[in-house]
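Human: Here is a favour to ask of a fellow structure person. Comparing notes only helps if you start from a blank page. Give me a protein, with the fold worked out from its sequence. Please set it down just below, with no commentary around it:

Assistant:
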Amino acid sequence: MIDNEKIIQDLNTHHWMPQKEKTGILLIDLQEYFRGIIDPILDNLNRIIQAARQAGVPLFFTQHGHESAEESGILGQWWSDLIIKGSDDASFLPELEVREDDTVIPKATYSAFYDTELETKLKEQGIEDVVVGGVMTNLCCETTAREAFVRNYRVFFLADGTSTVSKDFHLATLKNLSYGFATLLTCDRLLKSLKA
């Protein structure tokens, strides 16, 4: 069992909190393909989604998918199993209630910024702080967090609102990001901030 509060205390370079009126929450790839990886964090993410809606904080859901294996590039060469757009695997988990007024960002690689409209949407809404949650901690979530930082966003990373296939991968990402890219938060800390 990971003690997320201790990790945050031990690892964070900064103990910043997001500015609610300038915050956007990025929820990465909460799709059927990743259900087994999402299950341990699903309750936490649902609490974040509900609190964000009540606080008027915008939600951005990424949706990973490829037209075909042939157009998937190096990612398709690296992984033998792909998420094909329109398949059951590509759909959002129904427990999340992704709404029509939420922003959905289709993507085809680890980064939520690469070849997408995410940055344009963030700028349109005056977002300066981004909170990252979802899957997988060490792939799409970490890549997106790093790219947000180099685009001059303050990045907040949910230690218990991200998940991956191994504890070692998860902890490695938390260590790397907290050193140079993101402030780690627990979902409870973020909830307090959203409700303040």
